[in-house]
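In this section we walk through a basic example: taking a raw amino acid sequence and producing a predicted 3D structure, encoded as discrete structure tokens. The instruction is simple. Fold the sequence below.
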Amino acid sequence: MSETLQISETHRDALQEVANVAMGQAGDKLARLLNTFVVLPIPHIDIMHPQDIAMALHSIDTNESVSGVCQGFIGGGISGEAMLLFNDTCFSDLAKLMNYESAPDAQAEGELLMDTTNVLFGACLKGIAEQIDMEFSFGSPMVLGQHQSISSLFDTDKARWDSALVIEISYVIEGYNVNCDLLIIITEDSLGVLFNKLDYLLA
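The resulting token sequence is shown next.
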């Protein structure tokens, strides 16, 4: 954890409430898409370095391979990126939930990844933006990699940030072997604006 970058318990609690509402909206959209129940845990919020990310992923076994997508966002002085990581054992169950008639090939897996990403990123980031009275613009989603180890998806030497505020949300589909981790990474130079917005909510 950065010695200079910190988050107070008041701001953490406020951001947790904001994240709870946003993840609930995203979970509801995902549940409707898959026609099943989505388990929503408490979001985890912390200041992290890039090398801390793999250690922070609570729902994914770090010994298994994963697939990931990321998408940048910016607006009103806040910027960052959202990242979605899937345990690779998810794809066959995801395909069943999406009514695929056969086991997904590499192209179908990419489609499943993007479909789920679009739902979760759009709803979650929109939910956060609405609560703090902002509007985000989004970059194009980019596949980080498929069927790789978590550590290989994160080249810490190429990270565009040294420390950042990270909101981790783990989604689990009840009754299926489907879990994914959504990370919302907010850059260090955005935190002044974010904390001011949270102070306004707390006032």
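Looking at the output, two observations stand out. The mean pLDDT is 84. Helices lie at 9-34, 53-56, 91-97, 106-131, 150-153, 191-202. In the next section we compare this with other chains.
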